[in-house]
Design a protein that fits this description.
globular, Rossmann fold, six-stranded mixed beta sheet, 2 domains
């Protein structure tokens, strides 16, 4: 099956909106199409899935082995991979994990999405530079985004040194609402169906879909890979407060024979009987009052194995202070107090190693949150280094069978 990568010179070029418009337009035109997202992103894949009706995997060239990436990318139909940041932007010090790494590994062509709102003939050196920068990364064409007029589009087309597959006009209705960790989640969009329909209409009118599909190249042929599950029966929290679980982990555990039992803490559902309760990240700070009042949920966590990531980790603590300065009592499994009253960004890939717990061994992970730790007392879970190999303070806390950390686990390291 064929694949294609949509990348950009930098963040903010409108890749997500263009990708959603393309996915929706291609589906409406009768194509069997799927989406994928490069890098550690929980939010954009839900929009891809809404546009296509198919699951959207993360493909992470920093954290995943090539065989794992190939297995996750395999499947029917055309695969459009939305890049993160700029085409050659990756982890320090040398940009490892960039979208360009996926292009090399998978031998897939790139279509460059260029925000042309404030340029004309200058598009030529920009596109030429990206096309010539790495001979192993083939830029097959360009989609010009946020074009001001037909005259503006004609100027850009004449100047562009690569095939222009489309010129999408500026459109205020092609803006998605955002918050501090990215876009507002797909499930919370007030009228996502209408947005996708409009995006499809605009893209279909201004992009040569047949020329875009013709740029695609065959995907590597690889079977999906099962992942060793942390337990046989896993209770997984899933709702607006706990939405950041990587599908490839859950699917990999299921493929390996684990039983997944989904429940909603915001609905005050008790965690079902299981060998492990898994609390993914999400937005507990936006729902702290409801979580603090969810007695059935909080009470069901006592005296059993629980693992929490980022938001789930914060809920396992003694308390959480929201952005307004209000303190909310949490589960009390860990001697942890966190706060969003004064926000501080923590961001980056992490190399992790745990000597105990349900995820023992070496892992690639990622940290992205704005919480401040007011108190953290107890035994840490992970030894950690950053992407450059610099030793970080030990991460997370463990108390009895309960443990967690701010890191999101992506894939086991060999």
């Amino acid at each position: 099956m064929p694949g294609l990568i949509l990348a950009a010179p930098s963040s903010g070029a409108g890749k997500t909106t263009v990708t959603l418009g393309l996915l929706s337009a291609l589906r409406q035109a009768g194509h069997d199409v799927r989406g994928a997202k490069s890098g550690p992103d929980y939010i954009d894949p839900r929009f891809h899935a809404a546009a296509t009706g198919a699951p959207c995997p993360n493909l992470d060239a920093w954290a995943m082995a090539p065989a794992m990436i190939a297995g996750l990318a395999a499947g029917p139909g055309l695969l459009l991979i939305e890049g993160a940041m700029g085409l050659f932007d990756g982890a320090p010090p040398d940009g490892r994990g960039a979208v360009a790494d996926l292009a090399r590994q998978m031998a897939l062509p790139v279509v460059l999405v260029v925000d042309a709102a404030r340029m004309a003939q200058s598009v030529a050196p920009l596109v030429s530079g990206f096309a010539a920068h790495d001979p192993d990364v083939r830029v097959a064409g360009v989609i010009l985004n946020r074009v001001g007029s037909e005259r503006h589009a004609a100027m850009l087309r004449r100047a562009c040194p690569l095939p222009v597959l489309g010129a999408i006009p500026r459109d205020a209705e092609l803006t998605l609402p955002a918050r501090h960790l990215g876009l507002v989640q797909a499930e919370e969009h007030p009228d996502l169906d209408a947005f996708l329909a409009h995006a499809a209409q605009v893209v279909a009118a201004h992009v040569d879909l047949d020329a875009l599909v013709a740029c695609a190249a065959p995907l590597p042929d690889a079977p999906p890979r099962a992942l060793a599950p942390p337990a046989q029966r896993i209770a997984v929290a899933r709702d607006a407060a706990f939405a950041f679980a990587y599908p490839h982990l859950l699917d990999g555990w299921w493929a390996a024979g684990a039983e997944l039992r989904i429940f909603s803490p915001l609905a005050d559902e008790a965690a079902p009987p299981a060998d492990l309760v898994y609390l993914p990240g999400g937005y507990p700070e936006l729902h702290a009052g409801r979580l603090a009042a969810a007695g059935h949920f909080l009470g069901s966590l006592a005296d059993r194995p629980v693992f929490g990531e980022c938001g789930g980790y914060m809920v396992m603590g003694d308390g959480l202070v929201d952005a307004n300065g209000t303190h909310h009592a949490m589960a009390g499994l860990l001697r942890l107090e966190t706060s969003f009253e004064t926000r501080r960004l923590h961001l980056g890939y992490r190399n992790l190693e745990a000597n105990a717990g349900p995820f023992a061994g070496r892992w690639a992970g990622h940290e992205f949150h704005y919480a401040t730790t007011l108190r953290a007392e107890g035994e840490p879970v992970f030894a950690a280094t950053d992407a450059e190999g610099t030793t970080l303070a030990p991460m997370g806390l463990r108390s009895g069978a309960a443990c967690g950390s701010f890191a999101h686990l992506i894939a086991p390291r060999a």
